[in-house]
Amino acid sequence: MNAMQEQLFWELRKTQIEIIRSLKNKQKNVWMIPILEDELADINTAIQKIEDGNFGQCETSGEPLSDDLLKIMPTIKSSKDTDELEHFYKKPIISGFF
What we know:
Layout: H1 3-24, H2 32-52, H3 67-72, H4 81-89
Helix pairs in contact: 1-2
């Protein structure tokens, strides 16, 4: 495990604990439960990958994912997932939006 992976590991563990606490909390919005459960599953998978030594590999191609991408989204599973992220970075051109 390199230094970046170690840092991400501890950040993922901290987030994992926070989500587990939130799921145990009885005062939450019901619509959030599936979102938190999905995020927790992704975090658990990322932690397992770090422990197994295959963290940062694309699940589709086996190629390494960039460290910059992993720092932004350590739960990413494949390079294809970056295509879905792309729309979050685009700003609308509709003049009525501004």
